[in-house]
């Protein structure tokens, strides 16, 4: 058995059919875990399943799920438990970039949509996942991992990103509250505050933004997706059992620049 063997464990990754989520799912699959992906795009889900099944011995399941809708989460959770019987690690990764408006131009609709996906979505996912984890704990099988995809913008200022920054700052608060409340069941909760990674979302930005970020990051480069594989495995493994309530920057030193 390897040091970070996840054979028999089940990892759930929302928004896991691309970008950071798929990178983390790759790590879980390579470590032997069964992986459930909840995401909205059927074509990307199918492609992710094909890729991940070739990486390890665990099974892969992809389900259509909009995390802004409680009933969709409940249905996806029921199907995931039907397929695998348990969830050991939940990566609340699904999110959107926000409305991109300056503060004088904020609209209630844009603000609420960002919050619905980035913050409420994670909270509702945790609601259904922890009901299962707590039930297991009461039956003598305690433990579980909650890992949220947050952002360095939750602790730094960026122009035209107030809704996104606020949604991720709220996610940090959810993480700390969950860690405190759920510790009695040996469930840990942590947030990863990602910096600049090249994804479908950042590809839509002005190229000058990427150039500016590369100069500002002390390590002088975007984050590498391959590095996220080991990070995900660590936080899904027993080796992170004594880490909880933390909001960890993963940003090449951006937050200290």
From TrEMBL:
Keywords: Oxidoreductase. Belongs to the short-chain dehydrogenases/reductases (SDR) family. This is Putative oxoacyl carrier protein reductase. GO terms for biological process: fatty acid biosynthetic process. It comes from Erythrobacter dokdonensis DSW-74. Pfam families: adh_short_C2 (PF13561). InterPro entries: NAD(P)-bd_dom_sf, Sc_DH/Rdtase_CS, SDR_fam. PROSITE patterns: ADH_SHORT (PS00061). One of its GO terms (molecular function) is oxidoreductase activity, acting on the CH-OH group of donors, NAD or NADP as acceptor.
